[in-house]
Amino acid sequence: MGGTTLNDRTFDMTAVAQDEIVRLGTTEVWEFANVSGPMSHPMHVHNLQFQVIERLHDPRMASVYDTMRAGLVDEGWEDVVIVMPGERVRVHMRFTDYTGLYLYHCHILEHEDSGMMRNYQVQS
Residue 118 maps to which CATH number? Predict the structure, then answer.
């Protein structure tokens, strides 16, 4: 995530990049990386829930992370994960139920509106 893009791409209503196509019945690990500066990004994935499996922190941002880490709950199934400044969060996803075109995006409305949103495609 850089600025208001995802993988250096902004939103296009019908665009799906090759690395945004997944197969029904598969399991994937996605990584959200917040390299955009001092703001946290709540990342939301439509059509499924996921499990947080790892958080990797930039030591230079430790003071920012320390202000929120007690409130982060990574156990269980999620559909939104907070990605702190300088952090990489890896999530485990299972694409088991539906094919189709779905969104993943930052859940801050201004970021969605400025293009921090992408499609992913589930194919059989």
Answer: 2.60.40.420
